[in-house]
Structures are given as C-alpha cells and as structure tokens.
Design brief:
By secondary structure, the protein is α+β, with helices and mostly antiparallel strands. 15% of the residues lie in helices and 40% in strands. The protein has a nine-stranded antiparallel beta sheet with strand order 1-9-6-5-2-3-4-8-7. A hairpin with a 4-residue loop joins β5 and β6. The model has no long low-confidence stretch (mean pLDDT 88). InterPro entries: Pyridox_Oxase-rel, Split_barrel_FMN-bd. This is Pyridoxamine 5'-phosphate oxidase family protein.
Amino acid sequence: MPGGQEPIQVLDRETCLVLLGGVPIGRVAWADDRGRVTVLPVNFVLDGDTVVFRSAAGAKLAAVAAGRPITFEADDVEPALKTGWSVVAEGPATIITDADELRRLESLRLAPWAPDPKPDYVRIAIRHVSGRRLPLHPGGVYVEHLYPGEKSI
C-alpha cells in the first residue's frame, strides 16, 4: 500500500458482533413508502446475536410494527489516530411482548440516554452483518509541550 498503510479490513460476523457488544449507541434506519430513509440514534444492547433497543410510540415503532426492513449501524472512531470501525446489521425487527422475555430484558439494564419514557422493547434478529475497520495509521499524532524545556518521554 502507498505510504505503508494497511488496507481497510473486511470483518467477519464474529468480529462484527464483538464490536457491536462494545458500544452503547447505534442507529436504526428504515425507508417509508416513498423511499425516504429515516436514521435515528438509539441506545442498545447486544443480546446473543440480536440487537435490542427501547422505544416510545412514534416513527421508529411504527416502522417496526409495519414490518419495514430495518437496518442497524454502529461505529467507533478515533480521529487523532485516524482509525475506526463500522458495522451494519440487517434483519427483521419485532416488538417484544412476551412477559417473561420482558422481565429478562429488564435485567440487561438497557437505559436510554433520552429522558422521555421508552416502554417498548424492540429486537432486531441479525440475518446479515458486515463490517469494516480502518487500521491504525502510525504517525500524525503530535506532542505539544506546554512548558519550555520539557522533554518527551
């Protein structure tokens, strides 16, 4: 590669799931009847090989109830090191109504950051997942000395 940089890595399913399990925020996306795509952030947890998030009544829950195809995306980046990853998951989404399952999910302590109540739990069964990672690029990080004569370690 030019400049000794590694190429973007394509991630396998297992790596994608591990990465998803390490971040608290992702994005849910769907298209309406006119093809207009909506993307909204959600707090989520990975439960096995499914994504679970909470929602209130609104466009997100309506899309799930209507059986619209749902796409989920999460990522993590480190701008100073010019590295990061992105995972996209697709699969059917359902509103969870089983009382035993709801009690079990309560134990996962999925706490949305938004202050409004989100009484409904939604599960996305991941049928397809893909991911990419931009590997660490050495260099480009600078040390700024705040005191004259200070030496770098």
